[in-house]
Structures are given as structure tokens and as C-alpha cells.
Amino acid sequence: MLSLINILYLVASVLFILGLVGLAHPKTAVRANRMGALGMLVAIVGTLLDRNVIDAGMNGFMLIAAAMAVGGLIGAVLALKIKMTAMPQMVALLNGFGGAASVLVSGAALHDASNPNMQLLIATAAGGVIGAVTFWGSLVAFDKLQEWVLPGKPIHYPMQQPLNILLALIAIGLAVWVVRDPSALHAYWALVVVSSILGITLTIPIGGADMPVAIALLNSYSGLAGAATGFVLNNNALIITGSLVGASGIILSQIMCKAMNRSLANVLLGKMGAGSSDGASADETYAGRVKSTSPEEIAMLLETARRVVIVPGYGLAVSQAQHAVRELASLLEAKGATVEYGIHPVAGRMPGHMNVLLAEADVPYDKMKEMSEINPTFGQTDVVLVIGANDVVNPLANTDPTSPIAGMPILEVGNARSVIVMKRSLSPGFAGIPNPLFAADNCLMYFGDGKAAVQALVAAVKEG
Amino acid sequence: METFITALTVFVLAVFVGVYVINRVPPLLHTPLMSGSNAISGITVVGAMISIATPGRVSTILGFIAVALATINVVGGFLVTDRMLAMFRKKE
After folding, report:
1. Which of B37, B51, B65 has the most A C-beta neighbours within 10 Å, making it the best mutation to test the interface with A?
2. pLDDT at A272
3. Are A251 and B69 within 8 A, CB to CB?
4. What is A282-463's CATH topology?
5. Which of A107, A208, A242, A370 has its CA 20 to 30 A from that of A353?
6. Average pLDDT, chain A
7. What residues of A are in contact with residue B21 (Cβ under 8 Å)?
8. Which of A428, A70, A123 is nearest to A282 (CA)?
9. Whole-angstrom Cα distance, residue A420 to residue A440?
């Protein structure tokens, strides 16, 4: 029986890997995701054949079914109700639940182990620490994105890092205690409590705009917590999937950091904006050089444009302007223009978020271009529409080495014939610095509130 | 020790597979990648099922909560990923 179970776990693992392989292309992605789900079903069926589960009889089976029914219902409601803009919160929450499950499973395993070996003990302690950090860190991330209790801004207080280091040392001490004396169950739960506090104190300094990195990292932790649980139970399916997810989260957080030209440590410590630059002030940058424009004027520019690139920022998503933007693009395409979207890696609140928001508005995926793909094309672009984005199109990143965004790769929209920036005001973006693009000769500012402004533009183009 | 080395081997090899496979996913699909891999990490449900079934009240209670939480992770993750991926269409 044991070998049958392990073969089923192997099948499940292969299905999980194929599921990730299929995500390489949108065409195969839907099927790939369903293969992953099938893999989960295979793993669950395999576990029903486990000696413990069979010995537990009907009673045990009913308990498992009940717990799954409760979780499945909550999960389904969450998945079907959640708005696409709230996807980062959703992922944070799901991460957190995975982490919490690891804490509980490790705790139960320690409780039941009659003669635990070194591997079980070390893995239990690791599962407890990582799981608790993941759970509470994810809840804080969720809250910061939702802005319920804590503000989205980074929170700093004196002795922040020493306190974190102290908490980590206490956690390690308790972990050693658990390993040396397996009967000390209270040490395990104390470990969980300390790690929970650590999860909170590690996440509160991270600003709302840095959440893409934090969420990717927490995703990785939830995978590692799962892998640790796999070491506790000597279960290959858990180890394999845990490491796949762990790798995925780490890769994504690295991609995000690179897109901001910041180190992981810098993001995690919430340093951004702290060391503000002594660059030009907003008044010096903009003085008399900012040209404001109207929907009618933009419509005239667009009338003759052969190639238009839209650069969406998070502001676009906040104001729910995706559908209006899509309508504008269709109008322009009907007039014979090519319309593409240039998407900066940190345009949304999590990796790839902007693509999902545009896809929801029926923007075809082959129109969404990555930064490296779109940048060389700006030279042949007639009009760039920057909607609700700021720092990711700020040329200071290339020109001012003292700027807080120095070295961050940007969308080089300034190379286009004309740039239109739709924004509520000249207020700075997350980096808190003025944007010389707004004062450039080929740049026009269209002041307005996201959705209404795009709709006014759509109306003007229709009339024109 | 033997079992640990085997487990470690599996872990290290799986990390390599993960790095290789994940690097091929385009930024276009990074959000579904996160929610989908998240769903897969709900595999902890397997461990939680064993905890429920293990005799003893403590592990049954812990296991019950863990199965419920992990199932939220699994069902929520796969469904929301499916919802997102269905939106990615080619130009009509």
C-alpha cells in the first residue's frame, strides 16, 4: 500500500511540474492549471489510503470530509468574489493559510511522535518558525494593501532592527530547545508565538508599493514551510511542491527587486524614501515649462497617430479606468493605428498584476509588451499615453545618480514624438521626487481623474 | 540519516526543477503563477489529513483546522487562477 501511495504522490508531483511548465504560454496555461488541480486530487486520494487514515475508519474520513467542505466553501467563495484589483490581498491571505496549516501539522506531528528523530525535530522547528512568520506576515501584508488597521506606509520605530534580531535569536533558542527536548511541547508553541511576532515586525516596515516583493517572498516562505512539513512527515510530495513554490517566490521577488534596482534587504527594511535626494525641487523642475492640454487637443494628436503606446500605472487600476482605456484603444485601432501597452514590472501591486487587470478589460495579451520589448519601439511611436504612472517613466532614474530611483530601469517614453501624461496633479509618485518628463518639450499634461478623464478623451476622439 | 539524505536529495533536485521551470514563465503570467503555485503549496493538506486521522484529540483538532485552512488555499488558489487565466485571450 505504501508504495502505491508513493506512486500516487509521484504522479501528483509530475502533474504539478507540468502545471508550472504550461504556464509558459497563455494558450496552454488554463489546461496547465487544471493539471495542477488534478495533481492535488491524486495526492488527496493517495493520502486516503494512508495507514493512519484507514485505521481512523469512517469517523476519521467524515472529519476529513467536513474540514474539506468548510475550507472548500470558503476558498470557492473567496476565489469567485474577489475583485481583480484585490488579487494581491487574495494571494497574501492564501499564503497565510498555507503557513498556518504548516504550523499546525508540525505541532501535531511533534505531539504524536513517540520517539522523534533529529530530522523530524529540526523540520518541526523550521516548519513552526517559517509557517508562523508566513501567516502573520501575510496578514500584515493583506491589511496594508487593504488599509484596514495599519496604514499602507512603512512603519518605523526606534530599535526596529535590534528588536527583530532579538526575536529571531529567541526563536532560534526555542528551536534548539525543541530539538534537544522533544517532550517540551510548550517550547514549540512558544516558538510559534515568538515567530508570529517576528512575522508582524518583519512586515510592518514594508511600504504598500513594495508589497509585490513582500508577497512574492511570503509566497516563497509558504512553500518552504510546506517543504519543512514534508521533512517532518517524510513525505516526498510535500517536499517537491514546497521547493517548487519556494523557488518560484524567490525568483519573482528577485525580478521585482531588479525592476526597482534595489536590494532585497533595502526593500525588506522599508528604506525607500528615507534617504531623500538633494536633486532639483519640484518648482525648479517644472517652473513655467509644464504644458497642460485638453481632450480635444489630444484627440487631434491621436487622429494622425500611426502608432500609440499606452503606459498604465497602478493609478489606472485604482480608478477602474481599464475598460475606458480599452474602448479608447479600439477606437484608435478602428482608425488604423497600432496600439500597444508598455508594462513596467512593478506597474501593479504584485508581479504581473497589471496584465491581469488589462486582460480583465479584454485587452488581448499579445498587445501587452514587457519593458525590454517596448523600449526600443518608442522612437517609432507617435503618441504615448501615460495613465496613472509616474516613477516608472521618470528619466531621473537614468540621469541623476543621487536620485532615490537611480538605476531603476524605466520605460523610455520620452523618445516618442509626443507624450501625454494623464494625472490628477503634478504630485510626486512613491519615490517622492519630481519628474522632469512632465516639463519636457514633447510632453503634455492632461490633468484629470483617471476614469472620467479617459472617458472624456474617448468622447473627444469619437467626435473628432 | 538515510531517509534524511533521500529527502534532501529530492528537495535539492526539486529546487533546480523549480528554478528552471519558473524562469520560463513570462511576466505576463506572473500573477497567475503566484496564485497557482500558491494553490499547489496547499499540498500541506496531505499532512493535515494524516494529523486528523492520527489517534489523539490534540492532533485531530489541529489536523481539522489545518485541513480546513489548507483546503481554502487549494480550492481558492486553483479557482482564482482559473478565473484569471480564462481572461487571457488572443486578439479576436
Report:
1. B37
2. 56
3. no
4. Rossmann fold (3.40.50)
5. A242
6. 90
7. 17, 20-21, 244
8. A428
9. 11
